[in-house]
Amino acid sequence: MAKSHITLTVNGKSVEALVEPRTLLIHFLREQLNLTGPHVGCETSHCGACTVDLDGKSVKSCTMFAVQANGADVRTIEGMAGADGSLHVLQEAFREMHGLQCGFCTPGMILRAYRLLQENPKPTEDEIRMGISGNLCRCTGYQNIVKAIQYAAAKMAGVPFQEAAE
Ligand code: FES
Ligand code: FES
User: Fold this and answer.
1) How far apart are the first and last CA of the chain?
2) CA 20 to 30 Å from 98, out of 1, 16, 20, 30?
3) Which residues pair with 9 in a beta bridge?
4) Closest-lying ligand 1 atom to the alpha carbon of residue 63
């Protein structure tokens, strides 16, 4: 099958590649760029495990072709930590608040939370739950994921995190 030439930015680096027109973005990231943080949970746009940030939006990378990302700016979980290896505040938050168990949903969940907090730096609990409603977690029951996002929001705002009474 004829391949298409694409150029895009991934985690701050310029990338050029030849891709088959049928290649999904998630497979391009995982198999051609070896970025295996975004996971494949369903390939039917339900689970959100494949979520990446693309041109300032959360995108389920199983729902678009790699050729459609030509010219785009993409961020995956591999691009969240600092160059010195320091964790992004959301990664720290998920660790501190036990926002993960098996971790399968976590890369997509963190990328979704990242965009949510960019759009709404002080979300209410309901807004967080609505904001991550396209990302499924089969382990945690979501409570600690919500807490982790609240922790990150507080830290980004420079205020102490206060856990709500349950
Ligand atoms: S693998 Fe993309 S939404 Fe499930
Ligand atoms: S931590 Fe296992 S699916 Fe979310």
Assistant:
1) 56
2) 30
3) 14, 73
4) 2
